[in-house]
């Protein structure tokens, strides 16, 4: 006997509806992963090998921002800055994003695009060295977020 209307294996798999749409910030991060700049690509080729066991994510969303590289276990964010970061209102926007990221327990390391282009291997080694043995490691975890009580 054939299954009645609404029954069958399709009903058990959850139907044929549309998959949920990603959040706009996630969709933007995915787009940035496809459109990485040359310095970002060169650096990613080194960081994706997980040197010293450090795992990095590329174009990772943190709140309203998408950072170039993020080492979650080391709580380290790496931003690749080209010449455009020195012009117009970019320094103010960079300062605002750094403040937000720091308030959420991450350290920000800004690397010039020229350095990444000239020596991607050495730049990756310097990033990993910072991740493996940071100068200042928080004792009790990240600081409270803005607006939270201590």
Task: Give a topology summary.
Elements: H1 9-12, H2 24-34, H3 38-47, E1 57-62, E2 65-71, E3 76-81, H4 90-103, E4 107-112, H5 113-118, H6 120-132
Parallel strand pairs: 3-4
Antiparallel strand pairs: 1-2, 2-3
Summary keywords:
single chain, 150 residues, alpha+beta, Endonuclease, Chain A
> What's the overall average pLDDT, rounded?
83
Radius of gyration: 21 Å
User: Can you tell me the CATH superfamily?
Assistant: VSR Endonuclease
State the major sheet: 4 strands, mixed
Q: By helix and strand content, what is the structural category?
A: alpha+beta
Tell me the number of structural domains.
1
Encode the helix/strand succession as letters: HHHEEEHEHH
How many beta-strand elements? 4
Strand order of the largest sheet: 1-2-3-4
Poorly predicted ranges (pLDDT <50, ≥5 residues)? none
CATH topology: Endonuclease, Chain A
Measured as a percent range, the helix fraction is 25-40%
Q: What CATH architecture would you give?
A: 3-Layer(aba) Sandwich
**How many distinct helices?**
6
Per DSSP, what share of the residues sits in E-state strands of 2 or more residues?
Answer: 15-25%
Summarize this structure briefly.
The chain has six helices and four strands, in the order H-H-H-E-E-E-H-E-H-H. It is an alpha+beta fold and 150 residues long. The chain has a single domain, classed as Endonuclease, Chain A (3-Layer(aba) Sandwich), CATH 3.40.960.
Describe this structure in words.
The protein is of the alpha+beta class and 150 residues long. It has one domain (22-131): VSR Endonuclease (Endonuclease, Chain A, 3-Layer(aba) Sandwich), CATH 3.40.960.10. The protein has helices at residues 9-12, 24-34, 38-47, 90-103, 113-118, 120-132, and strands at 57-62, 65-71, 76-81, 107-112. Strand 1 (57-62) and strand 2 form a beta hairpin. It is globular and about 70 Å long. The protein starts with 8 loop residues before the first helix and ends in an 18-residue tail after the last helix. The mean pLDDT is 83.
